[in-house]
Amino acid sequence: MATKPDDTTIAVAPPEVAPPPATCSLPFMLLLAAPRLAIQMAWAALWAAFGPQFDNSFAPWAAQLIRVLGPTTGLIVYPMVSVLSDSCRSKYGRRRPYILGGTVASIVVWLLMVVVSSVIQDAKDKKAAADKLSGVAIVLYFLMGVAVNTIQAPAALLIADFAGDHQVTAFSLAQALSIIGSLLVSGYITLYGPASDVTVQILFMLILALVVTVLPVLLCVPETPYVPEVVTSRRQELKRGFVAFYDGIRYLPRVLAVYCVCFILAMLGYASYNGNKNQFFGTVFYNGNATDADKCGALCSDAQKRYNNGTQFASGTEDY
């Protein structure tokens, strides 16, 4: 009995292969990483410009306690902003709205710092004016840490979003720009005097650097709006953001936990170094007197001038 041949064919579709991660050109990497220069300038100025003022206005233990505000805000704000930006559904993208908000907040804080510094410099009794405004200065110091971290977190994530398989190259470039930012602040202090004498100029330099580096990112980076598979309420997103620091510590893998401890210890040493170098070079190395050295102006004694020369060396030449 003859059988009819089976003409049925089975089409086997090849497995779907995920497309390779997108990459970006070197000029575009420079554009993405440029805000890191301004961010590092802000951190360098935070230590150089305001550290000596706190040393002169407060007891050593109080000045060190105030300095802890910067790293503390970073530990809390950085992961919170990172989580919130991951779920941001703005039509302008996930990262740029937070970069814009942090930039505006930073500029407002720096302008308020300019006002405070100008009031102190124009007062007849600079010491009395500085003492009255010390609380305002501490609040602005804290707000600056919050604002700059609000830029820093999404700026780093934006680099990761676009770098594709060139993550190491992109972040190496960002680190190089960070170093340049630190050197710009140190160079300015070396050329134009101790930070306490040029605080207003440094603040305007920070504003200019931030606008020049962030504005091209806001205008030229084509972010795709985020469309979540499961839409969560804004309240849940905010809750996730606020507990991000706790969850990060709770679920941190062992290897990363060891790295985190080492990183915190390194940052503690760095903060201690930056917090004490002005006092060391000003009072020990140059044998100066820190009392009211940032407020005496043209009436500074020889000891106060030596202290200012020491802080200029510590925050300027020595940082090179």
UniProtKB/TrEMBL annotation:
Record's subcellular location: Membrane
Its membrane topology: Multi-pass membrane protein
Annotated transmembrane regions: 26-46, 58-78, 98-121, 133-159, 171-191, 198-219, 251-271
Main location: membrane
Entry-linked SUPFAM superfamilies: MFS general substrate transporter
Keywords tagged on the record: Membrane, Transmembrane, Transmembrane helix, Transport
Pfam families for the chain: MFS_2
Keyword Transport: yes
GO molecular function: sucrose:proton symporter activity
Gene Ontology cellular-component terms listed: membrane
Name this protein carries in UniProt: Major facilitator superfamily (MFS) profile domain-containing protein
Species for this entry: Saprolegnia diclina (strain VS20)
